[in-house]
């Protein structure tokens, strides 16, 4: 028996750290190369934006490092491996590709699962998410010199968009397209600000949110997004209506907020942007699990999840240093016990402690296998939360 | 604000009468209104009226958080293991299956694990959790250790549990007899034990039976 | 719509159209009730609207809607504890089924009713009352009232019947609830109230619970019992079923329904044999012990075992525990009271208490657990068929004179005692009673043999129901008036301990709905007899009630709203003045009854009990079996009772979604041994037939019930109602029906019943 968990002793710099640093360096270098190439040896690179570029390069290192470290954690590593295995499984590839597209559309693009948590909540997230996506899609190529506009030689009423140094398309400089395009960041700022306002409203108003939220985790990202959007809008206002009043000061302010946000990316809540797609992998993992052998609880005999899941969890727990194994019992490992039977065992142990002190005697089970405990109330919001939960409790 | 240290949660499942007050009151809690996080099962309704009230035990070293691939479960400084962080949870079900006490629930439609957070909205401002407030049998109780010692002098709180070769310590206590020799509750040892209760036939006068 | 069945009575109609229009539908929290950002406008400290425990709680109100509850930790009885009904009660308010207008019967309208202006409805009611009383005599118009009303309203209902309508025929649904206990207590102690506050349970060495499913019907009492056990108390439970509390009790006596006096007699005989008696107490404070001792002499353990169906050793153990205890608390409820010998059962239990001498002292107590919200207050102030305010008797000339004086009428104007609630139905069926007003009563669900009740209601010339939802009974009304929910009115109730507490208004009645007392006063005005019915607030009514109860056994004269609020309630008797040398009761009133040396208005110092000699009465309780015992044709005992999530006829709780989910539909609970004999498996559709009706429900095969008995919960109406089967035989003294025993036969149903698939669980 061991309290807590005993980790295997390792060298001073763990191999996963070393690997993560290398991954970080690699990714950063790759982006650097792309910048050089994409801007035609920096010929289209805007030197004024160099601070942005370096902050993005730093964020790239940080994100890759953190991602790599995250993937090195036993549970994540298993899921990562299993997710891809599941995805590329023979006979499942076409179906997986289709389901990837539909999951991508409903979960990532449309935020369906967030809308189910609350419609206003979903709207809030959609506004912030699409505002940020739009802004990133516009600014990153500009900053890296991958995109720039130039007047069309010979026809000064037309602009030409250059992508990676190649001409892409032309448009009149006084057209609606031009207006929309050149003010893209204004629109994205509007979306983000609206979303941030809704998010702040919820965080101030709802008791549940108030109880659980943390400044660094929950408010900091909103403040950063708000600051970026507001200073960005101020820049537009300055050159559009105020003849550039305070422009350079606002520009520095804006740069500070943007760079701050980039540097914050790997650490705080923003990391979920990179982590979240893992839920697609979790979906494939479950699909494959369902298509194969299930695990039967070794107390009540009911199937409760996939055998693969239990075996993977046993492995994960071993790597984490947990010792749920039950060597002297036919159960072998506690992971083979379903959640309801875990609850039953817990209550039985406590009840047994009182035998002889409170009334009642052990009820003869006549050698029968103990039945699966039954949830007393399967009503709305009280019982299993949906079908998967029912499977966890088994019907 | 952290949960005041002097207040603790005490469970005495053998007091439970299965009335479902906790289940109903849990759904009134502001952190997950409309959804009940209490697990209340009939152990074996055919043989006994015994019910099993289970709230999160708030482990010192929570298995659910360790096996979470998404780092979605956090334990606060005051020892409360919070429900999954919404932006992170990927609904993989690891926590549901790994929790030694069988606590978390999985809301697949929302891609979200949900579980008891000891009514953090209440306990962090010095109020009792909803379930322990209303529980008519006080199988779920919340108060100070001194209060408990005064009210239940023949019982003592224990917060160490054995599962196979694993010892788990929790923030939440369960009540065992004060003269119990061991300071731990061996959960896996009781797994196949019969329930304690009365059998009607033991006390029925069979000669007069219709 | 009706189908004939073998047992003579027709199956109740499904009433699908009415259900479609008026429910019951299930309400769940939505909108402001799930929005955690809503800051309530106010929090109202009041009490639960359901059982007799009357737990304190806070209602959270936003925009005249009750949006949630918060525990009221300071209220001493429950200190924040609530059962599921208390937690979800808020969902009954702002409910889609709520009656917002008056209605009159109209077969062409959807659901059979069409809205009617409030004033027009009142006029129609008054005209009908006037006509029926003119044509058929005053007593041809009857009133049924309820014990979930505030005490002020119950007082007004009695006054309305006796002074305004001058009909003898008023009774209340406590007739199905508290009357056996009330009659037994009056016979033995001279007063009808729990003898002790619940805090006396905590220090008891032995707790004897008989015929009470405490965990489900009085859930908060569970903690008192467990708390006593934490200090070493032994818990004895007598019940045909292993109730949740009985699961870990120290001694469980699985009694055969209807044999309670035999058990009490057997235990007392064993105590006498062992001389576990408090001779000094018996000598000094009681009379009649010798007759009782003679009566119980034949009740040897063997004979008791044979009659009660309980193993000898268990009876002996009970006698040993009870006989040798230093302190104790005995509690009972409908389990021993719902019998044709309910009063005898109660007296048998009281004999055990008196023989032990353990009453009137700290940690030595006795109580009946009241069932309804105002089960205590509702039986005190004149809505019982033979009663006047203050626990006075309608047949007693002095009492009549006093109350007539308070009301400013001639005593001769008061009618003589009328008949009980079931007899009102029989008279309606026989055509003697032509008109009926009912408030807070759902006899179509709650009375036994309820297909007879339905037939009786159909014969009425005019039936007006005051209700907040269209109950199964109100479906038979000619006019329905929209009354008030508990949270829509002010007042007081008296809870299980005899503690008078304050019910506070949280919201106003919606649309044309009115406080019930205003409706009654409006009818009095429309009748042109408004004298005595011009109260402007419940507090004014309470003021008059204090005067009307003054000098009676149930003396409220010293109680004010302010005093109640200041002291978390006041226990009656609480006279405003006491004779010289007699100390006035403390701020909380008379918390514990029968304390040695205490003064009361009957004994006037002669002794602690409420008789002129101050002594309690032992009453001999010869054992009689149930009115309908099992035989070859109907070989199985049927007993009925409650589940924790439903309340009484379910008119409120069957509309609260989460409570319906708690226990959706009634089941036939039976032992596996019986099920095996009948070839029934758990979950099978099972038909139960008695001589009065038939009922098909799913079986729950569980080992927690006697093998000769089946159990069905009674909260459902129509074809799911167990009261189609129960017998209307009544106790000769209390007139309580024998809900707890009748003979049935049981078989596996050939097919699912008609209602399956057509009705939701709560309908």
Report on the structure:
The complex is a heterotrimer of chains A (395), B (210) and C (763). By secondary structure, chain A is mainly alpha-helical. Chain A has 16 helices and ten strands. In chain A, 62% of the residues lie in helices and 10% in strands. In chain A, the strands form three sheets. In chain A, strands 2-3-4 form a three-stranded antiparallel sheet. In chain A, a hairpin with a 5-residue loop joins strand 7 and strand 8. In chain A, helix 2 runs parallel beside helix 11 and helix 3 packs across helix 13 (278-291). The longest helix of chain A has 27 residues, at 215-241. Chain B has seven helices and ten strands. In chain B, the strands form three sheets. Chain B has a five-stranded mixed sheet with strand order 6-1-8-7-9. A two-stranded antiparallel sheet of chain B has the order 2-3. Chain B has a two-stranded antiparallel sheet with strand order 4-5. With 763 residues, chain C is α/β, with parallel strands linked by helices. Chain C is built from 23 helices and 28 strands. The interface between A and C is medium-sized, with 18 and 17 residues. Strand 10 of chain A pairs antiparallel with strand 2 (39-42) of chain B.
The quaternary state of the protein chains shown equals heterotrimer
Share of β-strand residues of chain B? 15-25%
Number of strands of chain B: 10
Distance between the termini of chain A: 34 Å
- Tell me the structural class of chain B: alpha/beta
Q: Report the CATH architecture of the domain at 7-59 and 119-208 in chain B.
A: 2-Layer Sandwich
Radius of gyration of chain B: 18 Å
Question: What does the main sheet of chain A amount to?
Answer: 3 strands, antiparallel
User: Which consecutive residue ranges of chain A, at least 5 long each, have pLDDT under 50?
Assistant: none
Amount of helix of chain A: 55-70%
């Amino acid at each position: 028996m061991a309290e807590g968990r005993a980790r295997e002793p390792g060298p001073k710099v763990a191999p996963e750290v070393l690997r993560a640093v290398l991954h970080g360096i690699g990714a950063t270098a790759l982006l650097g190369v792309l910048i050089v190439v994409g801007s035609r040896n920096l010929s289209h690179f805007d030197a004024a934006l160099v601070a942005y570029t370096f902050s993005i390069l730093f964020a790239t290192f940080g994100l890759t490092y953190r991602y790599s470290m995250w993937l090195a954690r036993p549970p994540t590593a298993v899921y990562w491996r299993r997710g891809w295995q599941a995805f590329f499984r023979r006979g499942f590839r076409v179906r997986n590709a289709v389901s990837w597209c539909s999951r991508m559309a409903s979960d990532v693009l449309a935020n369906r699962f967030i809308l189910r948590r609350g419609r206003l909540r979903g709207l809030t997230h959609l506004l912030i998410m699409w505002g940020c996506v739009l802004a990133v899609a516009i600014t990153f190529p500009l900053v890296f010199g991958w995109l720039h506009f130039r007047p069309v030689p010979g026809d000064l009423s037309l602009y030409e968009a250059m992508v990676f140094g190649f001409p892409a398309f032309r448009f009149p400089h006084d057209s609606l397209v031009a207006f929309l395009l050149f003010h893209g960041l204004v629109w994205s700022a509007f979306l983000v600000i609206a979303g941030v306002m809704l998010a702040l409203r919820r965080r101030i108003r709802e008791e549940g949110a108030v109880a659980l939220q943390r400044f660094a985790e929950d408010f900091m990202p909103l403040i950063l997004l708000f600051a970026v959007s507001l200073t960005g809008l101020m820049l537009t206002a300055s050159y559009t209506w105020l003849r550039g009043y305070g422009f350079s000061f606002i520009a520095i302010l804006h740069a500070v907020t943007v760079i701050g946000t980039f540097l914050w990316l790997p650490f705080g809540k923003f990391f979920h942007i990179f982590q979240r797609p893992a839920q697609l992998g979790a979906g494939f993992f479950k699909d494959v699990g369902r298509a194969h052998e299930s695990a039967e609880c070794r107390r009540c005999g009911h199937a409760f999840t996939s055998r693969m899941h239990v075996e993977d969890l046993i492995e994960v727990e071993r790597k984490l240093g947990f010792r749920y194994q039950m060597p002297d019992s036919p159960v072998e490992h506690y992971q083979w016990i379903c959640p309801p039977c875990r609850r039953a065992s817990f209550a039985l142990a406590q009840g047994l402690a009182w035998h002889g002190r409170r009334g009642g005697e052990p009820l003869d089970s006549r050698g029968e296998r103990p039945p699966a405990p039954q949830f007393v109330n399967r009503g709305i919001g009280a019982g299993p939360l949906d079908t998967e939960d029912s499977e966890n409790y088994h019907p | 604000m952290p949960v005041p240290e002097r207040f603790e949660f005490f469970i005495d499942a053998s007091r439970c009468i299965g009335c479902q007050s906790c289940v109903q009151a849990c759904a009134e809690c502001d952190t997950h209104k409309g959804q009940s996080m209490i697990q209340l099962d009939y152990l074996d309704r055919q043989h006994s009226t015994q019910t099993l009230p289970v709230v999160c035990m708030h482990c010192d070293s929570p298995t659910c958080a360790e096996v979470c691939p998404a780092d979605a479960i956090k334990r606060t400084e005051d020892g409360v293991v919070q429900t999954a962080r919404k932006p992170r949870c990927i609904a993989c079900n690891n926590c549901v299956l790994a929790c030694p006490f069988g606590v978390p629930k999985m809301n697949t439609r929302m891609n979200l694990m949900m579980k008891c957070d000891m009514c953090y909205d209440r306990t962090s401002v010095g109020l009792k959790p909803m379930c322990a407030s209303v529980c008519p049998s006080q199988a779920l109780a919340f108060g100070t250790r001194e209060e408990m010692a005064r009210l239940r002098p023949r019982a003592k709180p224990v917060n160490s549990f054995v599962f196979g070769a694993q010892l788990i310590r929790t923030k939440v206590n369960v009540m065992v007899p004060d003269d119990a020799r061991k300071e731990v509750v061996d959960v896996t040892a009781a797994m196949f034990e019969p329930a304690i209760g009365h059998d009607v036939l033991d006390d029925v006068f069979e000669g007069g039976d219709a | 719509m009706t189908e004939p069945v073998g047992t003579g009575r027709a199956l109740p109609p499904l009433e699908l159209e009415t259900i479609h229009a008026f429910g019951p539908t299930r309400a769940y929290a939505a909108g402001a009730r799930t929005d955690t950002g809503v800051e309530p406008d106010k929090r109202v400290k009041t009490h639960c609207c359901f059982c007799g425990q009357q737990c304190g709680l806070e209602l959270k109100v936003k925009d005249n809607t009750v949006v949630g509850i918060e525990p009221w930790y300071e209220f001493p009885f429950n200190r924040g504890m609530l059962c599921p009904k208390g937690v979800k009660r808020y969902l009954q308010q702002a409910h889609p089924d709520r009656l917002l207008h008056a209605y009159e019967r109209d077969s062409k309208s959807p659901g059979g009713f069409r809205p009617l202006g409030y004033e027009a409805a009142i006029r129609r009611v008054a005209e009908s009352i006037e006509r029926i009383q003119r044509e058929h005599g005053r007593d041809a118009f009857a009133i049924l009232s309820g014990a979930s009303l505030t005490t002020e309203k119950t007082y007004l209902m009695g006054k309305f019947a006796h002074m305004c309508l001058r009909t003898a025929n008023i009774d209340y649904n406590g007739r199905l609830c508290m009357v056996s206990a009330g009659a037994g207590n009056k016979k033995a102690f001279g007063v009808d109230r729990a003898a002790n506050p619940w805090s006396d349970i905590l220090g008891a060495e032995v707790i004897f619970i008989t015929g009470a499913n405490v965990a489900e019907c009085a859930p908060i009492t569970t903690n008192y019992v467990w708390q006593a056990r934490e200090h070493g108390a032994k818990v004895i439970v007598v019940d045909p079923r292993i109730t949740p509390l009985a699961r870990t009790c120290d001694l469980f006596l699985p009694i055969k329904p209807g044999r309670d006096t035999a058990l009490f007699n057997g235990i007392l005989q064993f105590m006498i044999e062992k001389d576990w008696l408090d001779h000094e107490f018996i000598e000094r404070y009681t009379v009649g012990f010798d007759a009782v001792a003679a009566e119980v002499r034949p009740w040897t353990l063997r004979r008791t075992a044979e009659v009660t169906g309980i193993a000898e050793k268990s009876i002996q153990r009970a006698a040993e525990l009870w006989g040798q205890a230093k302190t104790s608390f005995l509690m009972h409820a409908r389990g021993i009271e719902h019998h044709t010998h309910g009063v005898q059962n109660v007296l048998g239990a009281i004999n055990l208490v008196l023989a032990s001498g353990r009453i009137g002292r700290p940690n030595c107590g006795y109580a009946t657990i009241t069932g309804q919200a105002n089960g205590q207050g509702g039986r005190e102030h004149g809505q019982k068929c033979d009663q006047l305010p203050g626990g006075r008797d309608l047949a007693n000339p002095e009492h009549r004179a006093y109350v007539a004086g308070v009301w400013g009428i001639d005593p001769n104007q008061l009618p003589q005692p009328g008949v009980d609630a079931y007899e009102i139905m029989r008279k309606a069926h026989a055509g003697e009673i032509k008109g009926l007003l009912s408030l807070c009563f759902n006899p179509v669900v709650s009375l036994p043999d309820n297909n007879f009740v339905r037939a009786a209601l159909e014969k009425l010339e005019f039936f007006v129901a005051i209700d907040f939802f269209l109950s199964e009974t109100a479906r038979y009304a000619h006019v329905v008036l929209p009354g008030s929910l508990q949270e829509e009115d002010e007042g007081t109730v008296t809870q299980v301990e005899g503690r008078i507490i304050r019910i506070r208004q949280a919201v106003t009645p919606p649309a044309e709905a009115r406080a019930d007392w205003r409706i009654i006063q409006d009818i009095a005005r429309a009748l042109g007899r408004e004298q005595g019915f011009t109260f402007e607030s419940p507090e004014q009514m309470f003021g008059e009630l204090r005067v009307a109860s003054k000098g009676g056994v149930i003396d409220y004269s010293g109680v004010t709203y302010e005093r109640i609020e200041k002291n978390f309630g006041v226990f009656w008797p609480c006279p405003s003045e006491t004779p010289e040398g007699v100390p006035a009761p403390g701020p909380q009133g008379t918390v514990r009854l029968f304390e040695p040396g205490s003064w009361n208005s009957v004994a006037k110092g002669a002794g602690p009990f409420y008789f002129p000699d101050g002594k309690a009465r032992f009453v001999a309780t010869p054992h009689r079996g149930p009115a309908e015992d099992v035989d070859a044709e109907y070989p199985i005992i049927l007993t009925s009772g409650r589940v924790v999530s439903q309340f009484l006829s379910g008119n409120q709780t069957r509309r609260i979604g989460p409570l319906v989910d708690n226990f959706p539909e009634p089941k036939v609970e039976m032992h596996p041994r019986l099920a095996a004999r009948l070839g029934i498996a758990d979950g099978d559709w099972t038909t139960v037939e008695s001589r009065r009706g038939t009922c098909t429900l799913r079986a729950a095969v569980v080992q927690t019930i006697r093998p000769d008995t089946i159990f069905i919960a009674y909260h459902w109406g129509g074809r799911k109602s167990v009261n189609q089967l129960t017998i209307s035989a009544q106790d000769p003294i209390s007139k309580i029906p024998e809900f707890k025993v009748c003979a049935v036969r049981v078989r596996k149903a050939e097919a699912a019943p008609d209602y399956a698939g057509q009705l939701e669980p709560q309908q």
